[in-house]
Amino acid sequence: MKTKITAILALLAFSFASAQQKEVEQELNSAKGIQFEKGDMFIEGSIKISTGGTNDYYGLSPQFGYFLNDKIAIGGKLSFSSNEVKNASEISEEVNGTKTNQFGVGAFARYYFLELASKRFKAYSELGLGYGHNKTEINSYSNTSNSVTADVNVGLNYFFTKNLAVSFTLANILSYNSVSPENGPSSNTFNLNINLFENIFDTPQFGLLYKF
Predict the structure, then answer these.
(1) What is the number of other CB atoms lying within 10 angstroms of the CB of residue 206?
(2) Tens place of pLDDT for every residue, the chain, 212 residues?
(3) How far is 67 from 41, CA to CA, in rounded Å?
(4) pTM to 2 decimals?
(5) What is the DSSP letter of 197?
């Protein structure tokens, strides 16, 4: 009797595992041939945490997008970050260092121009506009600044299910940044780089995208 019960339990466990494996394979295959449609929406973002030594960094950048058609999406984004740099005296319990807190809000327009690997890979170019507020503290001194940014990026999404994708920001082709500090002169910077082969895989940024 015990042998029969053991055999039945083993059969049930095998059947359950096979069903789960089949469900996983079906979900993975569902990403093949995926198409965007008007009205589709997505949530995308990344989290970065780096601690230890002389530098502690925390960053969060969520964004929401809405598809106007099968190739163009528009949306809004937020960003929060805190970066603290300690020097040797602070590590030895003396207060001395630099801390910068940043908050940003912006909008973007994205155009998908290429599909590869059964349409799992979707490459896009993106125009972004943003406003940022920064506060920097150096010992007992603090300074705030406001910034306006504009940039053009190239990136891609890789869908491993029909709803979930990994996002890669590969290159920053064009960027403009205008900073107006509370104490000090304003500054404007402009960068243009059309040679993507110099930086396309230099320091890619990774995130996750959920489409619904």
Answers:
(1) 10
(2) 545 455 454 555 555 445 445 444 454 455 677 889 999 999 999 888 888 777 888 899 999 999 999 999 999 999 999 988 877 554 445 546 788 899 999 999 999 999 987 889 999 999 999 999 998 888 777 888 999 999 999 999 999 899 999 998 888 888 899 988 887 788 899 888 766 554 555 555 789 999 99
(3) 6
(4) 0.74
(5) G
